[in-house]
Amino acid sequence: MRELRIRWTDELETASRRAAERVAERARRAGLVDVGYAEVDSPVGRLLVAATRGGLVRVAYPEEPVDHVLEELAETISPRVLEDRRITDPVRRDLDAYFEGRLRRFRAAVDWALTHPGFSRRVLEETARIPFGSVATYGELARRAGSPRAARAAGNALHDNPVPIVVPCHRVVPSTGGIGQYGGQEWRKAFLLELEGALHG
Amino acid sequence: MDVYRFLVAAVGPQEAEDCFQETFLSALRAYPGLRDGSNLKGWLITIATRKALDHWRARRRRPVPVEEVPEHPAPERADGEPELWRAVAALPPMQRAAVIHRYVLDLTYAQVAEALGTSEEAARANAYEGRRKLRAMQEAGR
């Protein structure tokens, strides 16, 4: 039945956008949104950004299908997940300013709901303290998180960082040289370190 | 977006916007009752389907002045032949919904069943029967 099709016109696109915005507005006022998300364009690709009342909870690179990320949020935090540009606005502004070189420290609070409490979380909290423009090694980070011999486990925790860029896991590098691995593809790690002026030679 | 597309096909572009808002607000209100692992998109299509069925029923009950045609308005900007859409609008509600799910949204029969709240066999039967009637109406129209 090929003739049975809806042509997706500009009017429909506009109307559906408008309807989505109105839903977000009404739902927010009724206290029905637990996780708001939006897509943000950036020099390292289109990012999916999600936030709760507690703060930024997820930044996903475009390799992760949006549906998967939303399902993950629904299952682990709350099924009340809605596209909502308002709730993500502070993070979007921070990201824009960061990529334009106007921001060295993200102001958005982080909601750690997607990170295991304990070592993983301590590693990421320590990572958040590494200043713009500098780097730390995996071993150093493991030591700061309280387990000096757990460099490999620290690497795993960084790989599972739910909020890359904002919690700067790209600033963690191997002690043996090079920039090391990155969950969001290594060219991005190089790009971010370059942007911050942390790549020498 | 599948939910919007479904509603445009089901209730027309004029009404889709309101139905869309009602669908999301109902879904958000009902979420606390959802079990972990339930899929969000399926849930939204299910609610949208209920809204469409309500909408069709309400429309049938409402007295329509004689001059006001057509009784089941077809989506104006839908592609394909307008007669085909009028024929879709004349199908019994479950067949109408199943046909839109299956042939406009390309849902699997398992997904159609979820949306209609029926067994997969019933979903399949509704889509087949709807399509058979549409074919018959097309033949008759020629």
Overview of this structure, please?
The complex is a heterodimer of chains A (201) and B (142). Chain A is of the alpha/beta class and 201 residues long. Chain A folds into two domains: 31-114, Methylated DNA-protein cysteine methyltransferase domain (Double Stranded RNA Binding Domain); 119-195, Orthogonal Bundle (Arc Repressor Mutant, subunit A), CATH 1.10.10.10. Chain A is built from seven helices and six strands. In chain A, the strands form two sheets. Chain A has a four-stranded mixed beta sheet, with helices on both faces. A two-stranded parallel ribbon of chain A has the order 5-6. In chain A, strand 1 (35-40) and strand 2 form a beta hairpin. In chain A, helix 5 crosses helix 6. The radius of gyration of chain A is 19 Å and the shape is elongated. The termini of chain A are far apart. The mean pLDDT of chain A is 91. Chain B is mostly helical and 142 residues long. Chain B has one domain (2-141): Butyryl-CoA Dehydrogenase, subunit A, domain 3, CATH 1.20.140. Chain B is 70% helix and 0% strand. Chain B is globular.
Count helical runs of chain A: 7
The number of distinct helices of chain B, counting runs of at least 4 residues, comes to: 7
Poorly predicted runs of chain B are 65-71
What is the gyration radius of chain B calculated from CA atoms?
Answer: 15 Å
